[in-house]
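This section describes the prediction task in plain terms. A model, or a person checking by hand, is given the sequence of a single protein chain and must write out its three-dimensional structure as a string of tokens. No templates, partner chains or ligands are provided. The sample shown here is typical of the held-out split.
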Amino acid sequence: MVKFTSIIVATVAFFAATASAQISTAPLEVTARQLERRNVGPGSIVKRNDVSTAEQKIILDTHNKYRARHGAPPLTWNAQAAAFGNNWIQACQFKHSGGKYGENLAAGYKDFKTGIDAWYNEVSKYNYKNPGFSMTTGHFTQVVWKDTTSVGCAKKFCPGSNWTIYICNYDPPGNYEGEYEQNVLPAK
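The expected answer:
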């Protein structure tokens, strides 16, 4: 009985040590340099992004449908921007990261599509005769910003607030003062 118990304890200890070693390292596709992290929450541990390939397609299709209406080229998926956003929202704080990307946040929506739709729907408040930033249209202008070429998104369910935070990071970022007229075009 002692030998059998010792083998079990040793096996459990081996797996526990292996698991803790895996938890303490970042996924291979993400490096600290790529993330350029800033105070990204408890322990700053990079966690795998739970956005599926199907969700990535929905994110790109939804963005690109709206961008096409405004003469903006289609976006591509940006894995580094997605990893940055994923790392940021692990703390379940609904606030902007202040990172190098343009950034849209949403919470309380059922999925990415409904969040992106809500961002785009700010179009009704945008004044093309007086182009510029507004707190009521900043999500919309980032979605259709012509010079942006890629997006990466992440999500996290936060049990304390009982909602999912959705984040999309855009590269290069939009919403630069003095550049709205050439980057936020009227719908065709």
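For orientation: The first helix runs from residue 2 to 23.
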